[in-house]
Structure formats: C-alpha cells, structure tokens
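Dock zinc ion; give full complex structure.
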Amino acid sequence: MSEKGRFILGIETSCDETAAAIVKDGTTIVSNVVASQIESHKRFGGVVPEIASRHHVEEITLVVEEALRQAEVTMEEIDAIAVTEGPGLVGALLIGVNAAKAIAFAHGKPLVGVHHIAGHIYANRLVKELTFPLVSLVVSGGHTELVYMKEHGHFKVIGETRDDAAGEAYDKVARTLKLPYPGGPHIDRLAQVGSPSIDLPRAWLEEGSYDFSFSGLKSAVINTLHNAKQKGQQILPEDVAASFQASVIDVLVEKTKRATLEYGVKQVLLAGGVAANKGLRARLEETFHEMPDVDLVIPPLFLCTDNAAMIAAVGTVMFEKGYRSGLDLNGNPGLDIEATNKLFTCE
Ligand code: KG4
Ligand code: ZN
C-alpha cells in the first residue's frame, strides 16, 4: 500500500455497461468511468448478449485507461484488481475477467473476483460507513433479494424472488404500455402523475416469508389492459403505472420493514438499478423516518445502476480479508452470493 492509501481498480462487464473505477481505502471514489450500451440495445427491446460482448471488447481498454488517467494514479500504485466474476451474461463477464487477469499478470498485482450483487450492496459504503447488523434491499434487473449482513463480507439471503425480478417486471409492464427500454424509469415518471386507482394484487406469500413474486402482478396488469380493450374502455397509462408501482412498493417496503424489526438491524441499505425509483426512495424515507434508531442509506442514482466503483468497494473488503483469485478465474453466470462467505474461512 502506498502512503497515499489503498487503491483498488474495479472492473465491471456483467451486463450492458463497460465500467472501470478506482476506489481509495474502500470508501472514496477517485475515478468512476462507465460506457453505457443502452442506445445499442434499445431497438431490440432488451440486452442482446452478443452485442453486449462486442461492445465490452471494444471499450474495456479505453475505459480502464480513462479510469487511471482521471484518478492520476499509476498501475504501480494500484494494490489489487477487483472484477465482477458473476452473476451476469457469461460472454460479457468473460471480457472483464480476462482484462483483469491480463492486467494483474502483466503488473504482478493480486486479483480479486467479486459478486455483482455484493458490489451493489457495497455501493452504499461509498456514501456512508456500514454499521452491522444490516439488511439490504437489492432490486435490480436480474435480482430482488433481502440480504442480511452480520459483518463485512458476510452475506445471508433471507428472501428472494420466486419468479421475475422487480426490474424485469418493470421492463415487461413498460413493454406492454409500449414504453422504450429500459422501461423502469418511464413507469416511474408516469407513476408520479397518475393515480393508483386500479386494484392490483400484492403477493405477500406465506406468513413470515421474505420472498417476493412479481409475475402474478405482471399478468394482472396485462389482463386489465386486455379486458379494457375488449370492452372499449380507456385506461390511462399513467394510472396503470401508478397502480403497478404502488403494488411493487407496498410489498418491497413492508417486507424490508419486517426484516428490520425481526433481525434487529442498525442499518438498512438500498441497492440495484430499481433503487433509482423515486417512488420507492420516497416511501422508504417516509417509513424509516418513523424508526429513528434505524439508519437508512440510499445511494445517489449513479451508484444504483451498474458501475465499477461498487466492485472496487467490495473488492477492497475481500482483499483486506486476505481473499485472492487465481489466474484461472472464470466468469460464473450462476455465482451464489453466500458462497462468498466461505472464501474467508481459509484465512
Ligand atoms: O442494477 P441494474 O443497473 O442492472 C442489473 O444488474 O440488472 O438494474 C437495471 C434495472 C432495469 O430493469 C431498469 O428498468 C431498472 O433497473 N430501473 C428502474 C428505474 N431505473 C432503472 N426501475 C424502476 N424505476 C426506476 N427509476
Ligand atoms: Zn446490476
């Protein structure tokens, strides 16, 4: 470690953003470069894996160089390279993993493979120091989970979606309303001006369960639109958006609140792309305002969507705990976040 501090280079290519960042001491962003591919995937209504891989190949070197340049840090001053190992699109993950391995090998630096969702959770540490135990509501395009953490680097999934992820449900409902991809921000915008006047289901599941389910809600929205069309009735898209959003938020916030009470946590973190949702942010703030003993942390929008600063942040903790990946590191699309817990037992 240089006298300036511990610098970790983070690399993220799990989906449709090619990103590199440098984080100092696990808490301070020194540079954070993201090349988004959204424009290339928009006309297909979703991420096309082959196109994503091709863009990552074209961008990765430029993005890493730019992260170093903006940080005014040399490769010699970097303590380790952290890279998203999984989950994600396998072809996309491989570009980041191979770039990280090449850099680690060429410069003789330690390599640390990290879990993408652990990254989303650690985006919060770039805002505020974590206090344990904590619970994190992770809501992204591919994941909806409640993760309990008793200490740094230790993750326990206490609830997860049984079908669609929250972001996926947003994107599918948006497509039904003929809104562009990614649909989440469009539904959010419409929901602000609509009225939640349509009665839609809330999937609470069994008593005490922290799991989620959004596919029934998605079908209910499609049926409502279909029935209205058959009867020649007009339904305002903003009312559909507001009603859908109210149903999603009711369940997400209520389950987070219950987990907070049951597990006696000190801090609640919001993570993932859907954390950008204005309605969700406002409702969480309202709810936890009434629980002053619990510290609610909501990251700024640029840290909610995919970025590499969050990968460097979790990579720092794993590096400090002594975890190292070998040069045989592979992209792992099905990587389990709880597997991370076992990595430290050999310390
Ligand atoms: O975490 P993320 O950037 O990528 C994954 O790892 O999945 O999340 C992307 C998801 C998309 O489904 C997008 O529609 C959703 O986050 N999203 C939103 C909002 N902004 C992005 N969903 C609801 N409201 C938003 N404002
Ligand atoms: Zn993500």
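Observed: The chain has a mean pLDDT of 94.
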